[in-house]
Prior knowledge:
By secondary structure, this protein is of the alpha+beta class. It has 9 helices and 4 strands; from the N terminus they run H-E-H-E-E-H-E-H-H-H-H-H-H. It is 46% helix and 10% strand. A hairpin with a 3-residue loop joins strand 2 and strand 3 (93-100).
Amino acid sequence: MRNGTRNKEQAGRNQAIGSQINLSWRELPVMQFMARLPRLAVPGYPHHIIQRGNNRQTIFSSAADFQVLLSLLEENAQKFGVAVHAYVLMDNHFHLLATPTTSDGLPQMMQAVGRRYVRYFNDRQGRTGTLWDGRYRSNVIDTDGYLLACMAYIDLNPVRAGLVREAAAYPWSSHAHYVGQRADRLVTPHALFWTLGNTPFSREAAYAALVAQGIAPEQQQQLTGAALGGWALGNDRFVANLQKQISRRVMKSKAGRPLSANKIS
């Protein structure tokens, strides 16, 4: 009789524990089980790309390292059909502005560049392990509203970081190409750049003036936040037209914690 009572009591306790376990799983935040949204990679649209070093560690230790990455970018941009419009290589991260011709061209380029550069850097430094802070971040931007601003934003990274007083003094960006200081084989100017003037000199002068003017803090925050979050950046019409082309949502929902863009510029 006692054994039967004990068995019933134990069964009741087991059922209660099982209910608590099931309830705790149901109550866990849904975001823990949601897969990451795929990156936006839309052919024919400019993309702002950010790749950071792991834990903000240095990813370039010499001029040779900068040159190797630029060579890898040039090689693989041509291989995978990606037009690189602008770039800047900083000590612990880099930015690109690029337009892919296919939906997989940009991720293929970034994967090839990332893997080969890590092998090179690790061998050179006698180190092992990861170099990058996870996968690269990117977003699609509206050409009319943000392309020239994004180019200026990229060029001004070294100025904001206090490395140089003006963009033209920094050797590891595309700025020198656009102001006539040197020809850069990696760079393919976007069609919008050609509208800045009728002659090379007038375009160079107009672009230099645009960069010297700088960009507003609000626009800088928009460019950084959208790239880190992977959200399209443009006006309502641009976003609506883009959303019709792809199934993945292109804008962040209004609810939720805002993305902090203070970690990187």
